[in-house]
Hints:
By secondary structure, chain A is an alpha+beta fold. Helix content of chain A is about 25%, strand content about 30%.
Amino acid sequence: MHTKYAVNPALYSCADMHELSIAYSLVEIASQSAQDAGATKVVSVTLRLGALSGVVRGALEFGYEVATADTLLTGSTLIVKELPVRVYCVECAQVVELLSVQSFRCPVCGTPSGDLRQGRELEIESIEIDVPDKKEAP
Amino acid sequence: MNTRVLEIRKGILNKNDEIARGLRGRLQHAGVLTVNLVSSPGAGKTALLQRTLRVLREQGLHAAALVGDLATDNDARRLAESGVPVKQINTDGRCHLEAQMVSDHLADWDLGALDYLFIENVGNLVCPSSYDLGEDVRVVLLSVTEGEDKPLKYPNIFNSADIAIITKMDIAEACEFDLETASANIQSVRPGMQILTTSSKSGVGMNDWLSCLAHERQSRTLTTADA
């Protein structure tokens, strides 16, 4: 017999605390914006997630389901845009995309660079909302 | 009913970041250099702090420490032996510290009387990397028992730090620790990062660490002269 651990991501990662609390913050911000816009429902949330954000996508997706329960976001879709790390290379005088987060070197010329230009993002880009039509004149 | 897209462009940790910014302003205004220590559990954060606090006290400098821990106050008790103000932040199972927790625990301290504030984060190489605590300097510790490839396994936290300290150098040989490889791995995920080597037991490297702290204070003009 073998033990199966892969039932709940919270059991094998920090999901119960870190990604879950991030999911709750996400829901709070999205709900507030939706409410302010007079929405009755949030259809989807688009998130920008940098490779250095420290957030595990799978754990966040799990947390999202939990955190959206009984909110305007219930049943909504989380769309994650994963962003690679970009640094500025002095030699090439341009922003370049790293091949791996383990190696902060320009993929073109090999010069090390820690001048981060993209990769720490953890932000809501937009939300898709349902807004009731304005009352039509009889 | 019509469906539309609403641009938001807002960071999810904005709230924490704002609190951290306020905190950093307050601490810098009070002339305090704030250091956030992060590492895996057992890398030697408490031991390094014990020695650091003791030496700073001998030098007539005023330091204080906040210690994050999941459940116990063992670390805070160890640090309190050094005779400086120490407060425990019990995270009740949370895997990291947040700026609000730091702010809450500073409420009744006279920041103007301090030169250094050390924050010992929860031992964890993942979650603490996302949370700004209002520190001036983030220091990541790597002990020689952990293996040289830790930086490659946890690039986020190493990349987010300003200084790396390789600890427990007194047992490096027994662990067959390869300093060159470890340093190269740190540089690979954070080019240009300053790397120090210490042993909290023998005291090796402590002088470098203390001058590094003094330098960080000076470079921010957080001098003791007006204290």
